Amino acid sequence: MSKATNIQWCDSTVNPVMGCDGCPLYPSTTQLANEIGAKLAGQSGMPKEKEELRALLKKAFGGQPFSDVYHLREQIAEKVGAELAAGEESERIAGIIEKEISSALRCYAGLLHAQRGLNPLKPEKVPIKGYARRFEEVTLFPGRTADACTWPDLSGNKRLNQPWLDGFPRLIFVSNMGDVLSNGVPFEFVKEEIVDQANSAKGRAHVWLWLTKRPRRMAEFSKWLTGQGGSWPDNLVPMTSVIDRDMAVQVKHLKKIPAKVRGLSVEPLWEEVDIDLDGIDWVIAGGESESEDRPFDLAWARKLRDQCRSEGKAFFMKQFGSIAIDAGQTLPLKHRHGGDWDEWPEDLRIRELPQALHSLTIPRDGRKAVVIPAPSFSRKEVKEFQRLNEIVERGIAAFMEAGEALREIRDRELWKAGGYTSWDNYCLAVLAITRNHANRLIRAAKVGKLLSGVVPIGPTPALPPPRNESQLRPLLNLDDPKRQVEVWARAVEKAGGQPTARQVSEAVADSLSTGEGTEPEKIPPRERRLRIVARLRSAVANRNSWEEVEALVAELEELL
Question: pTM for the complete prediction?
Answer without folding.
Answer: 0.68
